[in-house]
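Handoff note, outgoing to incoming analyst
You'll be picking up this chain. Sequence as last confirmed:
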Amino acid sequence: MNQRLKIGMIGAALIMLCFSLFALPSLAQTNHLQLMVTEEGGKATSLKDLSAGKELMVVLILGADCPLSKKALTEAAEDILKASSDGRVGILGLLVARDDDEDIKRLKKEFNVTFPLYLDRDNSVAAKMGVKVVPTAILLNKDGEILYQGRINDRVEQLGKRSSARRHDLFESLKDVLQGNPVRVAKTEAVGCPVEIRRPKPDANSKVEYYRDIQPFLYKHCVVCHQDKSVAPFSLATYEDATLWMETAIGLIEKKTMPPGQAESDFAMENLIPNPTPMQIDMLRKWVADGMLRGPLPAKPLDLPSPDPEAGELGKPDMVLKQSGPMTLAPIGDDVYRFLVFKLNLKEELKIRSIRLVPSNIKVVHHALMFFGDSANLAETSADKNLINFGLFPGDKGPGYGQGPMLAKYLKLDNKSTRYSFEMIGGYAPGSGSYRAPKGFCWTIPPNSDLLVQMHYHRTGKVETDLSTIELHFAKGDINPTMEYRASNINDEAFLVMPPNERKHTSFDWPVEEDCQIVSISPHGHYTTLSQTLTLKRPDGTRQTLVHVPVYDFNWQKLYTFREPVPVPKGSKINVSSFMDNTSGNPHNPNKPPKAIFMGEKTTDEMVFPFIALTVHKDSQWNLKRALHSGYRNGSVVDLLRHGFGFESPSDQTTPEKMKK
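Most recent structure output, in case you need it:
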């Protein structure tokens, strides 16, 4: 069966939230064990027959290609085994919509499914149980009454928002019943992919057609990632794909979740994804309302966008660095942030004009940040036994180390120098893996330096591996002899702590001490940051927006590069404005209930620390590493707040290093 005609997939980057509107008291009066399902091969059988000999039965309503359903195959089985290993609890998976026997065979083989799978061919079982979203877990007793219905855990709580699992709802309901207690939380909101419904015949008189209107929009805004060979977990490359996922896409577009990294600027940018306009969104809605008319094929079909549009643009690389070993990810667990060291073995300085990360498995590499750093410092960090396994889950293994205590412990900065021994030089995001110095400039990597890459991996529900490479192109031709290319961070030195159950607005000015040109910029915060804006304030009083990210998402950090470097005179200021939310209403919040969040580098900490790349005079005395130093000084104050004054956040399991001024 054509997979594009099925329920489709939705992923780390794109999750459909639907509210399962059901009333458990009325459902509980029905003996759901009388419902019939279909075995592989076509034979009908009842849930009662399938639950014979079991005290409890978990029915897992699934979609064969929904990524959360795939993860549920492993998560639900583990929860049952953890709650009861004596066989008192049974489990079966029920595939809905257009899924068929081939899907059962594929899932069993691909995900090593340990329990039986059946089909709900006409969605009748899902409908009678009030299921509108897959995956949904249903716990039945011997009388066929629903004791629990909803999500397996709270790893994904809202549209496109995922974090660490804090409550394992299915496991907790099983534990309650097996201990002879009522289920404390009998209903939760299921999050995932919508159960497919039959649609009316398209209106032949509709003024919106797929090939003429919808396909060009999708190919421009979405299909670089949303195609079979690219990073997104479902495709929007065909008419059939679009009919299945357009309503989901519209919801994500309206919330500015997709396309990812949406931003606004008063300056032209090279890699700024065009934000869909209200008129375009109305067009999409009109197409859905009119039944999704296909329309005639165009005389010249559109070419499918390349999933790697940058491949080959720069020619053959001068150097290719290989990851020291494969990174293996287990089927389930939180996202992994891992630092990998790529050895350069430099005896003299290296001048490069571009750097490009090439994942071997784009399905799991969500994004990456690239730095250079002192070889000895990086080697010391890599050898720290407290970091090697930090952030890994059972079954994860690979090179590098996790993001644990503040990296300042290892960054032995030279206070007499205005340069970093550790500097960001690029990043990777789907469809944008290379970063290039402006014309006439290059990065100068000092001798005895290596590359450090922070990789953000996410899971697919099965064992995955990645073996990324880095391509370097050396600087050739004319390089400006009087100017050099530098990078810095901008630190809000006043930000120390975010109290629980509060929303906060921070604003501060970063002084520009010398004439310079801004090449690129990247807002940065963590999970409580909602939005961030950087504004250029010139001495003459004029103001221009460098970048405004209205919906900041830590999972989609992006480097924005100006089409032409922005001239900035000495005496200017760059204002950084951030809105933060440390309440339970923030789906990104790492703590439920909210707790005090302190300034720090861990993802469960918070910081206002945007990145900026600029050109300055070669003899510049501007101390661009001040932000890094002030961040470490703040670390000392935070240490006192946490420990010396008893304000320690219970979520923090590590003690930051005390930094010297």
